[in-house]
Amino acid sequence: MPTREEILAGLTSLANEYSDIAIAWHIIILMLIAALFAGWKPRNRLMILLLSTLFLSVSVFAGIENNVFNAAIFAFLVIMSIYTTLGTGNGLIRGDRSWPDITGLSLIIFGLIYPEFFQTDSFLEFAYAAPTGLVPCPTLCVLTGFALLYRGFGSVTWSLTVVAAGIFYGFFGVFYLGVNLDWFLVAGSLILLLNTFILSRTASLKR
Question: Which of 56, 57, 99, 120 fits 133 for a cystine, CB–CB 3.0-4.6 Å?
């Protein structure tokens, strides 16, 4: 296993060498948010597949950086995302505009301005070049946020997959890499876990 210093160096290298990719992801995510809030209601399966491209991006760039572990884990998350669409209802996405929305929006914003690894003297640059789509934790923050906003897109399996990844990488970031900001990902993942349990239980009682 790479040392803490090697992992941090690799993440820093990704965040700075491929900042143009991060900028592109910011534009794509903001366009998606704008479309959703403007009233676009895609199917659950389509949204899971669209968001799984973030998993794919992290996997590809981890591979470029020779981080075999992250490349394999995020490739597995892509496969799980595709697999879950087979058992997911293909209804239109649904959001309650309730308390999970606050957490969801906060996590998406945090993931898009994640102030680690990208080296700049201007905090404003984090708003469009933070390493979303390149580094695990900000990417998982964004995905957890979307899952909270839209009931996990009707898939308990996908929600729990995001939860498991978020808790693992959050704790790994905090306790091994010393990135205390990753507590936000841990907290968001636990809230998604609670919300998934509530929604699943409510759905069971209605049957």
Answer: 57
The rounded distance, in Å, linking the Cα atoms of 44 and 89 is: 7
Annotate 98-117 with b (16+ C-beta within 10 A) or e (fewer). eebeebbebbbebbbbbebb
Concatenated DSSP letters for 152-189?
Answer: GGG-HHHHHHHHHHHHHHHHHHHHTS--GGGHHHHHHH
The overall average pLDDT reported for the chain is 92
pLDDT tens track for 73-120: 999 999 999 999 887 778 888 876 676 788 899 999 999 999 999 998
Mean pLDDT within 136-150: 97
**Cβ atoms 167, 189 nearer than 8 A:** yes
